[in-house]
Amino acid sequence: MSLQSIKYSRGSLEILDQLLLPGQSKYVVVRGVEDGWKVINKMQVRGAPAIAIVGCLSLAVEINPEDFENKKSLRQEIEGKLNYLVSARPTAVNMKIAADELITLANELYKDEAIDVTQMKHRFLDATEAMLKKDIADNRAIGANGAQAILQRVAKAGKTPAGSTGSVRVLTHCNTGSLATAGYGTALGVVRQLAELGKLEHVYCTETRPYNQGARLTAYELVHEKFPATLVLDSMVAALLRAKNVAAVVVGADRVASNGDTANKIGTYQIAVVAKHHDVPFYVAAPLTSIDLAIPGGDHIIIEERPDREMTHVGEHRIAAPGINCWNPAFDVTPASLITGIITERGVFKPAELKEAITKLLES
Ligand SMILES: CSC[C@@H](O)[C@@H](O)C(=O)COP(=O)(O)O
Q1: CATH number for the domain harbouring residue 47
Q2: Of the residues 2, 21, 175, 186, which should be mutated to test ligand 1's pocket, given the most ligand atoms within 8 Å of the CB?
Q3: pTM confidence score
Q4: Does 57 share its domain with 97?
Q5: Could you tell me the pLDDT band of residue 2, with boundaries at 50, 70 and 90?
């Protein structure tokens, strides 16, 4: 069974505290929106899809026991609280897209004269809870589409390791697995699917400084799943791609602009540059809820800057010289020109085809 980052039943929400992993597995109770905002901002829960789901469910547990005087007050509560949750972390677009969808739903329910305030609340709770199931289904589809794309490309290029039966070695960055989503994972879902097909020869994961999502979380998931896996430091990627016949890089995304430029965990951009140099295909795996068609390119993405302490300390232990200045952007933007394909639940797209393809899909 894969790890569960979010435990939810109507009226009750708990998240696995990712600040404590891998040392301790402890669930934190989220009682409402204020708790939801805090666990997202402090990164007790993180990863673009998980942020959106926990944010929305924190509103669900808050309004579940409340009696609203009328539909207008419920609609106002929903809009105000969702917009507040969007402010917890700025780079990932998933929370914003989920908030916009749920606000649109609340407006429709408000206008629907056939339902009363209690029915409106239940319809809203149903829609919020549906996100959990949808995310897992989307991730499974991403996994299948991504594994197929990688295996096809590798077969065409004749790049499987010598003596193997078409199995591949892949590299991933940050954590995109069960912990970053409702379950299964995006880029790690592709790895999972390769393993399910018996085609995963080896997966390499980066440490992902400074927060160490790779060493603490991805490595934890890979060990848990008993996948053949090796941890490397971020500074080893060039050497790894030169030495280990890696067939593909697959990473997640926090926000994909309409031209395919992709914001993801800091360090992703330099991996893409190195992959290009070594002629290794570089894939981004992300659900449609990570694609922001409202912005034309990566320059429009706000990059979150996090506290110096994440760089200067490992746990309680200071590793940097006292007094040194720090720059700690949590994400970078990989230009579309370095991306081979964007793997979604609805297919794999070249960055140049993304906008038209997604617009068509959303219209249908
Ligand atoms: C499926 S998670 C995709 C991305 O959100 C992930 O790669 C990432 O950058 C996470 O950053 P984090 O700062 O840990 O929230």
Answers
A1: 1.20.120.420
A2: 175
A3: 0.96
A4: yes
A5: low
